[in-house]
Here is the input.
Amino acid sequence: MAHAIEHEYTTTGLNHRKMLMWVFLGSDCLFFGSLIATYMVYRGQSLVGPYPVDIINVPVTTISTFVLLLSSFAMVQALAATHADNRRAIVGWLLATAFLGAIFIGFQIVEFNTFKNEGLTLGGNLFGATFFTLTGFHGAHVTLGIIWLVALAILGKKGRLGPNTALDVELCGLYWHFVDIVWIVIFTLLYLIGGFDAGPAPLGG
Amino acid sequence: MSPEISENSHTLRSNDDYSTVKMASLERLAESVVDELNKAQGESQMGLLPFRRTGNVSEQSVSNTTKSIGRRSSLKNRSVIFGLLAALFLFAVGCSKDGMSPFDPMGPVAAKQLDLFNVLMWVMVIVFVLVEGVLLYAIIRYRKRPGQAKPPQTHGNTSLEITLTIIPTILVLGLAIWSVFTLFDLQDPPEGSPEALHVNVTGHQWWFEFEYPDAGNGKKIITANELRIPVDRPITLSLESDDVIHSFWVPKLAGKLDMIPTHTNEMWFQADSDKINDDLPVTLYGQCAELCGLSHALMKFQVTVMDQADFDSWAAAYGPPPTISARAKAGQAVFAANCTLCHTIDGPDDPVLSASRLTGFLTGGDITPVPAPNLTDLRTRHTLAAGLVDLSETNLLSWLHDPSEIKANNYMSQRAVMYKTETGTSNLTNEEIDALIGYLLDLQ
Amino acid sequence: MAAITSVIPRPTSYEGLWGWMTTVDHKRIAVLYGVTAFIFLLIAGLEAGVIRMQLASADSTLVSPGRFNQMFTMHATTMVFMVIMPLSVSFFNFVIPLAIGARDVAFPRLNALSYWIFLFGGILLHMSFVVDQVPDAGWFSYANLTEKPFSVDRGLDFWSISLLVLGTSSVAGGLNFIVTIINMRAPGMSMMRMPVFVWMTLITSILLVLAFPVITVGLIELTMDRNFGTHFFIPAQGGDPILWQHLFWVFGHPEVYILILPAMGIVSEILPTFSRKPLFGYPFVIFSGIVIAIMGWAVWSHHMFTVGLGPVANSVFTITTMLIAVPTGVKIFNWIGTLWRGALEFTTPMMFALGFVALFIIGGLSGVSHAVSPSDFQQQDTYYIVAHIHYVLFGGSMFGIFAGTYYWFPKITGKMLNETLGKINFWLLFIGMNLTFFPMHFLGLNGMPRRIYTYTAEFGWEYLNQIASFGYLVLLIGILVFMYNVWQSRNSRHVGHDPWDAPGIEWSIASPPPPYNFAEIPQVLGRDHYWIVKENAEAAGTPITGPEPTVDPKSIHMPSPSYWPLFTAVGVALIGGGLLSHFALSFVGGAIAFVGVIGWSNEPAAAPNDHH
Here is the structure.
């Protein structure tokens, strides 16, 4: 990670990279917003099954959602360890976060596979297209986050993370929490609300 | 310099005589805005509008130069306004009343839309003249003079800003409100109109299909590329598309509305006899207005406005050709053997058949049937190939021989089995084509 | 991984081709952007030439309908994404750090990455000509004409994937300039002291990072429809082609302001300079820009008045579209207010800036007329709209860009463009522009639809089309004069650091600026900083005669050149290229980009022993 211009003067006092991350997350909001809008527009518009009620498994995804939430907690701990300059804890918590993220991705892979076997495909109906696109792009975000976390853990192992470079961990944390929050929205809309849609007619408009 | 100017001013004077009251009021408007700006910039000798020049300036030490410059810019300012009026004249001339021009509306919908545009255009012209006038005035009046000191460093004027925000806000909101009323007003035919005639219009690459569910006495009619409508009666239309997005537009009757697959858009128009100067029937032009592929430019149609009686007799006569002559009978056999996969000539199309054609077309493939015009009333039509050429025996012959000669991109030459030849021309014999023409055009 | 990435030594040369390819200097990147975008301008201009020659006569058969559709599609796509936007970014790059008193942008290597991705994205799109599968569905590419049954070759894939690649570049650039402007202003430069161009860049950048994700989603869905069997926009399977229009125009309308706001910013710098007085109503110009940026999100459906959204939706968008004219009008009043009682000097940049105002008024007025939806039903999709967008984008954006080029050229090169040639250039473009595009108003009002490759003589469109085609030739000569002017400038003598007696901070340093820009970060005294400095110096009896003194570049720690932006951009381009040819290539590209990012993050922004 780049450290050279860490201590230079900024107008707002905020670090450049931190501001970059915030603005990027704002941009990413619009990205997920548009994907979610597509899902909402096509909700209940599929001409053929399988429909959400046929295949969405809320309990299972509740577990994976819980795992992802737990990973956010591990992320907070990793940042705290970085500030405390506890190298073992840094690496441990970063890997824990990555591991929990990986479990979430594992659930997603199993889920995609099950859905595929039950006949839900990208090209089968609009529900399949919107579901796989939205959750797939979220999964890609999580995967990138895992790679980032592992890379940080390697740096931590080498002793390159500590209070002076806490920003490196904090940025990853910002990203990770954002991806988490997006999942909460997706889980609410696709599973808790939309998961019981049946048939081609939209439920409740 | 000055004799030149006075000469110029002479010519301008004489032009002045031609100008109307409008000219004067425009100047007044320009003047008041300029005034406002001057006030905003604080009282100063340099900020006066030339044609309001009084003793104030001549009292200055630089009076001589300023004066002549002032006079010149005044002239320029006037000639600018004249130039703009000339441009306006050009504008009026530029708007023709040709076939596709909406400036000669023949029905209430197009007329109300034009009313709005006409007012809008005057608003635009006045604002244009004012703003460009002030801009040009500033450019000419405030150019740097040799040895001129730094101009006064003003930073702005809040009350002027607010005024110049509120005035356009009122102006555009006025236009917006009128637009909104017109929108709702034109949504449906007015109360008390005669009973509307309904037409379902379907856009195809690259032709229009017209279906009258009830053209009179419950008779259903399907035809293509030529819409016949009775005068003085509202026509309600349901617009759809079979393939990509098209747009339905008859400028003299109404603005356009898109034809979108799986959406049905509703519109209406009417042709008014008191707005049509020629004897009926008259032919109006329409064209697809949304890019729809290769032959978008060739996707045209005609609207024939006729008396109710003429319309009724056309509707009553709608039906397959009587097929009396031997030539026509031979042609009927050729038609049945070569054309019926896509075309029909037995009156209204079979919905199941047309649906299966559409599915075949959308899923692609090489020799799938395509939705094609219903040819039942071909003999009563005026044009061929979506309004491209007049319908005549010669043109139909050349069309049947090789459709791409007339319309470069069409599904007939690409998909019909009879054109799957090396040259792309028909594999029918000349006799067969001749018989087909006899049948389709009901020639004896 | 770190082993691989540390094998390659850090580039140290600032000279020659490698110097340019590894540069992270915002001023050099600006030149790269400018030159590349100008080449794309020539390509798009030639495409426009084909369109104009085809339409010069009725029933013309110069090009086939398919080729014609390709020409207008590529012309618009190139002009929007590869000419006007990158030319604006070129000015952002050169001017912003100088105008806010900074030594570079916040992320110099990200900046280089943006450029290289832009270049490769543009090349990727133009590869479609090589394989002769050129996009042909218009720059808006309305679904479902873009779907497989109606567009079988790969043209639309080239279009959507190149735009995805280009979008990455734009968003990265936008992020960079937001952080730069908010975070890197010299002491004393509060937000309300920022030059208007800096403000407009900030607003444009915010629009960029918010608008591009929307079109990205649309493009992803289109690409998936065409390649992975989804039915987002295929009506037969329940998809809705109108959703594409919404996604496109939710992006597309802010995009219009992305194209015009930078030019407005440039003009707001030039008019005060050559009027010798500060910008009239500075806060109003700023606030109107902000209002435009916010309201720009609430007007997209005026592009869809004829879709049949119903009178309620059409009413709402009529009103919002009408209201957005007000802040635009405010800007025009303030520009005229700036001229008022000034001492105008008609230099070439000033003439282009005045041309901008004059032509933008026309484009703005015809824009208001589109808002009147019932009347717009007649004008939608006719040449009237073509006239409007060219008054706004050519008369507006391009004139602003030419103004900026003539204005900042002496700062970029230290040499002045020839003023006489500049004025010839201006008048040719001004006259050519009006000859080409003014008749199009009448063509549209007389019912000539857009995007038709041919027309018959019976509707009376031929005469006006001939004027327009003649105007194109005048424009072409104008562009050639500009090119000659740039070419001949290599022999002209060096002008001082401040040839225009300008107010901006950038004029206080040497021309061309040293790599570090400011030996000492200036303390900003006010809105028109350098005017204040010069005035104070004059009052103190020591008028300023030369630029700020330069220092030994080695004494200032600057970001070092880097291979990684170029390397990473190659990876990104290969991902896109792979989607268009072999998926394996995408994986190679992904791997390259991954290595690039790792190498990038292992490399400090400035090499420890390199004091550049």
